[in-house]
Every structure is written in C-alpha cells, then in structure tokens.
Design brief:
This protein is mostly helical. The protein has 21 helices and no strands. Helices cover 75% and strands 0% of the residues. It is found in: Cell inner membrane.
Length: 432
C-alpha cells in the first residue's frame, strides 16, 4: 500500500507539472512518514540524512565543473573553428555539412559531455550554414539534435558520472572508457543516413560553390579546441589527475583559450557564465539529492524486491527482459532527461542486472545509449527541442527525418547487446 502511495503521488505531481526532483522528494517524504506512523518525526529524519548522503560523494564534484566547461567552450567560439577545420578536410558538396555537424558534436562531446550545450553551440553555427546551402531547416534540426545526443556517451559524460555514483561496481574511468567506442559507432551510424538523405533529396547543392577554407589556417585556429579532449582524457590515462581534477583543469584551460587565445570571453562575461552554469548545476544536484531520498524509500519500504521477483519470474528469459527494459527506457526517455532516468530507474534495475550477472559497465553503457536515443525521440526530446528552437521549426516537422536516424541508432544498440566486447574491450585494455 505504501508503494502505491509513493508512485501514485509521484505520477500525480508529474502530471500536474511539478519539477521531477520536487515530485520525487515529496512522494518519498510522504511515503516514509506513512511507513513510520508511530514515530513519524523520527522517521522523517531519514529525509535530510539521505539527501546529504546522496550529494556527499567525491565523483559528484566533477559534475558542476564539467557543466562549467560546457558553458565556457560554448561561448568561446570553439565550435565555429572546428566546423571550418572539418570543412577544410572534407571539402564541400551535397551531404558534407551534416557529416561535419556530427563530427563537431562528437569533438565537443569530448570536452563537456552536455547534450543541450552542444546542441546550442553546434546548432548556432551549423543550422544557419546548412540553410544557406539548401538544407531543409527541419532536416538540419534533426541532425543537430541527434548528433548532440552522442555527448552523453563520449567522455567526459555527466550521465556516466551519475551512473558511476549510483553503482559502486562501475568506476568513472571504466565508464568513460566503455562509452568511447559506442560513442564513435553512434556518430558513424548517424552520418550514413544523414549523407544518404541529403543526396536523395538534393539538399546542399549550392554548397559546392562555396569556397573551401584553407587547411593550414583552419587547423591553426582549431588546434586549441582539438587539444581539449586530449588534455582531459590523456591526463586521466597518464595518471596526472583524477576525473574530478580533470574537470577543474578543463575549466582553466577553457578560460585560457577563450580569454587569451580567441579573446571571445571578456572579464565581464565571467559573471553570466558562472551564473548560468551554477543554475544548471544546482538543478542537477538538487535532483540527485532528492532522488537519493526516493531511492531510500524504495529500498526501506520493500518495493524493489517484489518488483525484481515479478520481472525475473515473468518467464520472458534474460534477453526478453532486457528488451522489455530497453523499450521501457525508450518510452521514458521521450519525456525525461537522462540524469533523471538514471536516478529513478537504476536502483530498480540493479537487482535485475545482478540476478543475470550482467557486467555493470556494459549495462551502464547500454542504458546510456537508450537515454541518448530518448534525447532526440519525439514527442519530447531535450536536444531536439534546442535545435528546433534555433532552426525555428516545430518539432513535429522533424519526425520524418528523425525516424531514419533512430533506425541507425537502434542498429548500434543491437550490436552492443549482441557483442558486449565492443563496450568492454577498451576498459579491459586500459586495466579498469
């Protein structure tokens, strides 16, 4: 009965438009209070205790730093310089600009790991350029929305950090390494339909008449942006700093590039950069803390074990249950962001993963791929909404294009499920 109250209040608050973190916190508080009617106020002490315990974890220190890194590089003009370099390398012609957009999104993913930030940075540069070249705005928004979803797979990734905090058996370096190859595969899979659709619908024909940027000059301007992921990931691999320390190094490197090299960030811009990144970090951490209270209520009220037994005993088998879970995450990913999905569902899914002895790094990457797909799956998709706003097109006009990109993404997911070695090869090779 208490479990029904917990989920009933949570769903009701979500339907009423209450923010997800507040909905989780209020539902859990009421459920904990009802479960301790004899000593309600004493039982409610678990709420602040678990709120603090959820935030008092060392890996979470990296989260606001990487949010700040994303904001800094978004405003430093790195995206525009990376676009020029990719065009200088690949040339011009039908289908080239969508490939460039996806490549640049992948590179920015190696800096911030924030999908909406990448959608804003790449979309602000590429959508206007693609429109001038003859690409339909709805197609451009679809490509940018899908490409920016890769960021939660390619390290550093905020979603992978949150997963590693929730699952002690999956360290941050192991998750970063596990997401690298799938992230690259995801990007390549998106390039193929984007290129084919461009050619089939004769988009980008005027692009061939545009001058090609000089390679030497473009590389010289973009090298500082290219060096960022090398500094972050190479420093961690070399043992120079931990993922948390790498985030701090990336902040100062981004400020150096923006203020000294490119001079696109001025002193009076720092306040707005710090304010915007602080607001986003506070929202994420507030949700993390309240989700900790929600997870505590799930475990102490005895909800997780019956759910686990019901799913395991459903007779669907190991792969049938995995498919069921993935379909559930696709549906949830249409309406919730990735961090919220992890915070709500990982405590419920971990006992199932442990029952089938699934590798926790592999399972985390599979969940992250599903979250990435959900970020550009209509009707509600965070990254797609950002790119549609920039392109000034309604989201429903992107559905016809997005379906092809989703098909390519699901093929990558199928490969990762059938061949877990794709995920686990790099972590094993690096000794994580």
């Amino acid at each position: 009965m208490t479990g029904i109250v917990l989920f009933g209040i949570f769903v009701a608050l979500m339907v009423l438009g209450v923010p997800i973190g507040v909905a989780m916190g209020l539902a859990a508080t009421v459920a904990i209070g009802l479960a301790n009617m004899d000593a309600m106020w004493f039982g409610l002490l678990a709420v602040p205790q678990n709120f603090y315990a959820s935030l008092g974890k060392y890996p979470l220190l990296a989260l606001p730093m990487f949010v700040l890194v994303g904001t800094i590089f978004e405003r430093s003009g790195v995206a525009a310089r990376l676009v020029n370099l990719m065009v200088a390398i690949l040339g011009r012609g039908p289908g080239i600009l969508p490939v460039v957009a996806i490549l640049v999104a992948m590179m920015l993913g190696g800096i911030s790991g924030s999908g909406p930030a990448t959608a804003a940075a790449v979309g602000g540069v590429m959508i206007a350029a693609m429109t001038r070249a003859g690409y339909q705005p709805s197609f451009s928004a679809s490509v940018i929305g899908a490409a920016s979803a890769i960021d939660i797979l390619i390290p550093p990734s905020i979603a992978l950090i949150v997963y590693s905090v929730l699952v002690p058996g999956a360290s941050v370096p192991a998750m970063f390494a596990g997401g690298m190859l799938p992230g690259i595969m995801f990007g390549i899979a998106l390039m193929i339909p984007a290129y084919i659709l461009s050619r089939r619908h004769k988009m980008g024909l005027s692009e061939s008449h545009e001058p090609r940027p000089p390679l030497g000059k473009s590389f010289k301007e973009a090298v500082w942006g290219l060096a960022a992921p090398v500094l972050i990931l190479g420093g961690m691999r070399a043992g120079l700093f931990t993922p948390t320390e790498a985030a701090v190094v990336a902040v100062f490197y981004g400020l150096f590039v923006g203020m000294v090299i490119y001079r696109t960030i001025r002193l009076n811009d720092l306040f707005s950069i710090l304010r915007d990144s602080s607001e986003l970090s506070a929202i994420i951490l507030l949700v993390v803390g309240l989700a900790g209270v929600f997870a505590y209520s799930l475990s102490t009220l005895g909800i997780i074990d019956p759910v686990t037994r019901a799913i395991v005993g459903s007779g669907l088998g190991e792969y049938g249950i995995l498919v069921l879970l993935l379909l559930l995450l696709v549906l949830v990913g249409m309406v919730l962001d990735g961090v919220s999905i992890f915070l709500i569902f990982v405590p419920l899914l971990m006992p199932i993963a442990m029952h089938f002895q699934w590798d926790l790094v592999w399972f985390g990457v599979i969940l992250t791929v599903m979250v990435a797909i959900g970020q550009f799956t209509p009707p509600i998709a965070v990254n797609l909404m950002v790119s549609c706003r920039i392109a000034m097109v309604p989201l429903e006009k992107t559905v016809g294009w997005v379906m092809w990109l989703l098909l390519a993404s699901f093929l990558v997911l199928l490969l990762l499920i059938v061949f877990p070695e794709i995920v686990l090869w790099l972590p094993d090779r690096l000794g994580y």
